[in-house]
Design brief:
By secondary structure, this protein is α/β, with parallel strands linked by helices. It has eight helices and eight strands. It has one domain: Aldolase class I (TIM Barrel, Alpha-Beta Barrel). Helix 2 runs parallel beside helix 3.
Length: 215
């Protein structure tokens, strides 16, 4: 599944940008939420998510790159997020946050930075709907893919098979026609792509080419 990331979209015509990728066949849109504290950038809040909810039927995956995610989870749930993904590094009690998200009727995801050992989240895997592996440092788009992230995807895929678990493996950062091939081979199932989609004049072709490269 290709998940276009609105971080690379034209925010002056964001509604049209989202409609374009939906018409091109995308089923999931990745919403990058940054608070200027957990990462050195500031993006959007729940009002934008609420506006997008009225414009699209795509799954809205809100990736919270924020401190104290427990405060923001209810805001984005109410705004219309379908999936809410928080960072393990920002969580005082990750299991509590997963329960909080599920109690609000949403799917729960967890993300980890490149420098965080993937084994840190092993006790949580049975409760998760999604694990998001960062293949760049979170905070900015357009960064170069970190091949070391593939080891995390392989480990997650192994755990998923051995324990018969149902979470999805997503990867975010530097995904293009070349890196998506190795990510797929390593077990990734959702590919967050920003500039590879929104940087193309033909979004339909961009998504089709990424899907083809991931087969």
């Amino acid at each position: 599944m290709i998940a276009p990331s609105i971080l690379s979209a034209d925010f002056t015509i964001l509604g049209k940008e989202v409609t374009d990728v939906e018409n091109a066949g995308a089923k999931l849109i990745h919403v990058d939420v940054m608070d200027g504290h957990f990462v050195p950038n500031l993006t959007i809040g729940p009002l934008v998510v609420k506006a997008l909810r009225s414009k699209t039927k795509m799954i809205l995956d809100c990736h919270l790159m924020v401190n104290e995610p427990e405060k923001m989870i209810p805001w984005f749930a109410e705004a219309g997020a379908d999936w809410i993904t928080f960072h393990d590094e920002a969580a005082a009690n990750a299991e509590m946050l997963i329960d909080q998200i599920h109690a609000l009727g949403k799917k729960a995801g967890i993300s980890i930075k490149p420098g965080t050992p993937i084994e840190m989240i092993e006790p949580l895997l049975s409760k998760l709907d999604l694990v998001l592996v960062m293949s760049v440092e979170p905070g900015f788009g357009g960064q170069k893919f970190m091949p070391s992230s593939l080891n995390k995807c392989r480990w997650l895929s192994k755990q998923k098979k051995e324990q018969n678990l149902g979470f999805l493996i997503s990867i975010d950062g530097g995904i293009n026609l070349e890196t998506i091939k190795d990510a797929k081979k390593s077990g990734a199932e959702i590919f967050v792509a920003g500039s590879a989609v929104f940087g193309s004049a033909d979004r339909n072709q961009a998504i089709q080419q990424l899907e083809q490269a991931a087969k």
